[in-house]
Amino acid sequence: MGKGRIEAFSDGVIAIIITIMVLELKAPHGEGLQALVPLIPTLLSYVLSFVYVGIYWNNHHHMFQAVKHVRGGVLWANLHLLFWLSLMPFATGWMDENDFAMTPVMVYGFILLMCGFAYYILGQMLIRVHGTDSDFAQTLGSDRKAGISVALYILAIILAAINPFISLGIYFIVACIWLVPDRRFEQMMR
Fold first, then answer.
1. Total domain count, the chain
2. What is the pLDDT of residues 32-61, one digit of tens each?
3. CATH number of the domain residue 46 falls in
4. CA atoms within 13 Å, Cβ hemisphere of 35
5. Which of 18, 99, 108, 134 could cysteine-pair with 91, CB 3.0–4.6 Å?
6. What is the residue range of 27's domain?
């Protein structure tokens, strides 16, 4: 089957996820800039989550440029990824509501870890569809950034028990690692 519907559906779900996150932002009571100061942690957690969702959308888009067709397993793997991404607004809100306490920060990291795992599964399902000798499989190859990200997520989840703000710093570092889109698929398409 063609890939157009999975791309359109994914784009729609990701747009809804971002919309839900922005709806969680409440306008301050007060008209001066000082009314925004108490909202700085909320805005920063929103920006971090927005960037993460954007990273997944961007890399999903790049990867699907190289996809020729999909099967049912790919549809389920994609839904698995979208499920974990859909929990981002919840985790973001929970962290903010509880002043970045240990458990919400750990859960946020676990959701990030599961998003990464789900993206990996999606890639593996696409390799099955296209074949291990395909251009797609060769382009996807092994991914050092993904391995580093997993290690950092696990470290951050553990360190949240000591200091949740260290974990948030690690989540920020992983986001910075992924800000540049995965260019392997762009190069393949040339």
1. 1
2. 999 999 899 999 999 999 999 999 999 999
3. 1.20.1410
4. 7
5. 108
6. 4-189
